Records
---
Amino acid sequence: MPIERPNISQLQQLAGELHLQISESEAAEYLALMQPNLDAYDLIDGLSDEVPTVKYPREKGYRPEGEENSLNAWYYKSEVQGAQQGVLVGKTVVLKDNISLAEVPMMNGASSLEGHVPAFDATVVTRLLDAGATILGKATCEHFCLSGGSHTSEPAPVHNPWRKGHSAGGSSSGSAALVAAGEVDMAIGCDQGGSIRIPSAFCGTYGMKPTHGLVPYTGIMPIEATIDHAGPITANVKDNALMLEVMAGPDGLDPRQYISRGGSYIAELDKGVRGLKIGVVTEGFQLPNLQPQLAEKVRNAIARLESLGALVGEVSVPGHQLAAALWSPIGCEGLTMQMMHGNGMGFNWEGLYDVPLLDKHAGWRDSADTLSPSLKICMLIGQFGLKHYNGRYYAKAQNLARRARADYDRAFDDFDLLVMPTVPVTAPPLPQPNCSLTEYISKAFEMIGNTAALDVTGHPAMSVPCGLVDGLPVGMMLIGRHYAESTIYQAAAAFEASGNWQEM
């Protein structure tokens, strides 16, 4: 079916949007010259898309309600049985609802995307199924993944399984809540500012943000390609390492994967920490909203690692605070360009595009007022930087990210791992539906002070539960060199084996 051709007045309007002035006669001449190019569009329109085939059948599924979804953590239930053999046979998995699962609805926490049904499975989904996992469905996530709190998801906030009425953390809120509640063994989360580690810290799960590019993001709705990460959320270290082994490695379709890496992580779990050098990052304990009791729990956990034979010392990483500041122009201008102006896909990269998702998400402009305030403020910051400063601060921030990364790398000259609190607070109460704009936005970003920096530098970082404060979990964040996830797992497994974290 031929695409619609513009007429003369439409072409003059398009020219105006490009700051051009053309006469009617010029427009007519341009139109005639454009026809061979538009014929190419016709050719493309008539061809079938190049997308992966769906390997495993799946149930039609449904959206659970009432007691079946008491935490609001499920978006959609649809069982997909994986291969009959593999390392994940018998393991159940839930997917964050920005991850494509063919023939199953995907909403990404936002009503404007409701009704979208992906046509293919994300690479990580296929890998899990090939390894024998059983996928049980999709977990609720925050509104286009732009919140560290769990109050921005539509149609209702996600509750913490440790205490209803409190935040489960975001943006992989349902993923961590369902693992912590024991409804699934494993979950996939995604992390651009802390969205795997924050809900893991709030809910008491193990959440790994791998090295940038280690896990393919193909088939997952992005926010900003340079800070997009996907990784496992589990109830124990072994499952986490096993899941990452299955998901890691290049797929040839994700431009984030500029180095071919994978790894065997299970082999590291029994090595212990004797002789391992762990640096306590001074800046990680300097957040203005750090709860003293939470900081004490993390320091007690570090002392426990030391009692197991680790060599512990303090270290300053000035790039930690720099990287946290760099997140604003990179995250806000980047998401405004890629996720909003670029309709979720953006431009200038080779790989697998989800064309129907692009078409569906383009409709955000028709209901922009319904976007969450946490997304709106990022868009306003991003648009301001793009319009008034031509993106120069995004560009400079990307340059300065190398300085922040180098500061971390210098710390790794002396230490094998770095450690700090994952988040500065335990899970706070969910804001009321009629709360102020200030409270709504503050509760979305008050906890990202330590986590966002590692999205900018790309280093792997894992939240490990290490105690309770007033009955709510505390997370300790272990940070490794690029592609040194195995060292993180080594320390996390030793800590896990040393005692019940809930009693520490």
---
Amino acid sequence: MGETTCYILDNGAYTAKVGFCNMEPKIVPNCIMKAKSERRRPFIGSQIDECRDASGLFYILPFQKGFLINWDTQKTVWDYIFSKECCPVNFSETPLIITEPLFNFASIQEAMTEIFFEEYECQSLLRINATDLADYHYRKLNNNECTLVVDSGYSYTYIVPYIKGKKYKEGIRRIDVGGKVLTNHLKEVLSYRQLNVMEESYVINQVKEDSCFVSLDFMKDMELARQKGYLRDIVKADEELEQQTLRLNNERFAIPELLFRPADVGIPQMGIPESIIHSIDSCPEEAKEGLLQNIVLFGGDTLFPGFRERVYNSVRALALDHFDVNVTLAENPITYPWEGGKLLFRDPEFYSFCMTKEEYEEEGKALAFERFDI
């Protein structure tokens, strides 16, 4: 492959987006799963498609609360990703861009650098935040100076202002609500109201993704839910069903509402629109207008129907009248940072951001901390 291509791994807490920059990325679950019916066999990454019984599937995750802590699990998933079964790579010929969380712990950064240089024998490495790649992607397409990146993923939601391509750290806000909190809350609500689904993380996650939406008028939707009832007609008791039916009523919009009102589940934080305004208010005066005009949303939670419109309506209501507000939902909210990595590789400055194996052997981890501004 030579240096004409680059291997990009957007290593999310729920899915890894991976591939060479001259191909389409693969989306691989970043976990090992085990099924109650097939206890002996772990399903790694996309092997989950081979599982015959999705009920009772449980996840073994490398990430907890947004940080990589289970190295054995992560290493198993990486070995699968880099193998012939998924997306094979020779790191001695191909530079690697890998993402890591904002404010990542020094010990995790060190371990990551070490694994890729020493175990995978990577020749050229760039560790970077997914939000940096999202900002780069947006700037390349829009030629703007300021971007407000909203990353609403599995573990949390981050709001990150960028001024001339640099993170403005005083403006970063984190909300401890992401896809995992929503799925867990849906499990609790359904278990309380209907049927014990506490062991059904995989199935309920699918239910959430297929059925939930963000309300644009919560009280009106509550009234509608009261009058009209359920997602599908309730089956009469005498009709035989092979499967159990879950009835979804106001859960469909009350679950994603937690992104806008974390206090509803006892998390004493602001919702996304208030956090956006709070973040912008802590930035330099001259950047505020540009940030409001360039809000970009990505991450799995932004796929809920109504998400962009709700963020826009709420931010518009909170912002000063004489400022324009523009909210863009990434074309593909899952692969948006990965696509940013693809654009970054074409940047003439690309190699100046990277660290080589040679530099690592000469100067060690200290240079990695200097080079990668996480």
---
Amino acid sequence: MTPADLTDRIVRYGDLVPCRTAFIDAHTPGSDRKENFTIIGGGVSESPDQHVHIAEPHGFNIGAAGQPPHCRNSLHSHRTAEVFFVLSGRWRFFWGRWGDAGEVVLEEGDIINIPTGIFRGFENIGTDYGMIMAILGGDDAGGGVIWAPQVIEDAQAHGLVLGENGKLYDSKKGESLPDGVGPMPVLTNEALKDYPEMTPMQVVGYGVRRYLDMAALSQDTPVKVIGETGIIRDKPGFEVDLVTRSSASETMHSHDRASVLMPVKGHWRIRWEGGETTLAPGDTMSVPGGLDHSAVPSMTGEATLYHIVGTDDPAGPSWLS
């Protein structure tokens, strides 16, 4: 790859390849219409059908979930950070053993840093197909997904079994667990004690930031949304900044590792030595480490983008610990 050719590091929204069998709840009514996308990194999909757009390790994963109205993602947990921002639609995030410990509604551009170690789910409560973008800590994203026991039990009733090897087997396709592979164990009551019921104040007060508030803070310089000095103070193995029209700069700069640009509003012109491209909302671009580049709006009107770069912090339990 030459600096002028970064085509393979740009994933256009319209080119995203969905997987409709990514997780154990793919047949469960209410969750059976969702689409999952793995954009950067291996992701946490349990299906061999999942397409990976950019496999290169970045120290974190980028994915997305697309869902029609009233479709939900079942209760699960991760061992590393899980951060979402709303690209389109209106979304309800809920958490707790049964999903009733608390909830919050997020609009376009809003961001949530969900604590490790709690069960969480989300639902599109808008009127149209919606998309949320996800950042997961670590190259292996903590080794996969931990499901609330009822999710595994419900899935079995609809033909899907998760093996202890982390792979899905679909009885509707004539599949069964291979010899020597048992089903994924359901968490015991004793193990469930390690998954706390956090209050709305704990989750929303600390981990949620509203788009308009962040944009107002990003006047002269980008606002650090997540980081050791961020407005969400956390060190999950990556940092997230929000760049606006007023805080964007034509000045070329680089990072010592690959960084990711994800527009939320407007069109952005990305320049580097020997090349340039334009990104629109929903597009994702990985900029190689050490490459001088700049990002500025290419048209008038509202323009914001999220910028993600890895850090040397371990991608383990985040601010809950």
---
Amino acid sequence: MSQDMSDDKLPQAHGAGEGHGEVAAADNPFADPGLPPHEPRRTDIDERAAKRAERQVSLLFIVSMLATVGFIASYVAIDPAKIVYIFPLGHISALNFALGMTLGVALFCIGAGAVHWARTLMSDVELPAERHPIEADDEVRADVIQQFKTGAGESGFGRRKMIRNTLIGSMALVPLSGVVLLRDLGPLPGTSLDTTAWKEATPTTPIRLINVNTNLPMKAEDIAVGSLTFAKPGPSALRPDGLQESDEDFQQVIAKSALMLIRIQPSDIKDAKSAALGFEGVLAYSKICTHVGCPISLYEQQTHHALCPCHQSTFDLSDGARVIFGPAGHPLPQLKITTDASGYLIATQDFDLPVGPSFWERNA
């Protein structure tokens, strides 16, 4: 019985083999099923449904415009230091959250509106297209142009004015978000780039120099010849307690007002103007490099050279802090100092030059 069953299977296997050979030899073994019959959408046959879809698309574009306006309003109105609790994110910056949400909604609504428009109102008829060489001939180019015109007409872009106008409005407003963010590149021109906290110092209302390490006022004898000391502004009319690290704007103020003091033998000072701005060989220069604003903290005692650690700009502090090496474009600004009746070092005016890197309104 086992032999009979094997014999029964053999003819079937042989027949299957012949059938497989016939299929393999065929030029087109699978029939082209073609495109399924087109089924109209509700919006294709019901004008009320089409109008409703048009209003939905326009609403999405309008929401995008409102979100962009909300982005700009949030940037202007919300304090960058404000922290809020948002579940489940926890404590986060209120400004960052508002900017992220409004910009996200603006971009999402443009995309969602375009997709909804395409799925409900634009033509959904499928057209087969044969593959062709990459380079198109004149006939194909003319056909593409014609198809573009046909597609533009079928999209209803010219006929459905509500969608067209709201789309243009939302697309025009979204780039304003990026324009507004340019404000964070730095202070506005002509506002605070050319002044520091030392601007309050005058001969009648001087500002004392405060040692940043001891937080105490300094005397000339406290600075040894060949030493380097860092200082900050002391009490003034606007800051009765002086500049403190607990101040909300401490980083912004110290970034421009940081001071380095050196003491050189008066006979070694080469620049007469620099010597006149100092006191008994004590010279006060801006600590901010004039290349890209790095803090200078390296001093060569024998050569009187100050070196910026970022890009190796080198300044000769005995010769008006002129640049002798590196990419910096101009010398370090110098602060005019003297002493008060108690012998403490004081400033009587702001730096002689704008502090930090060059900018578009700087003359020196």
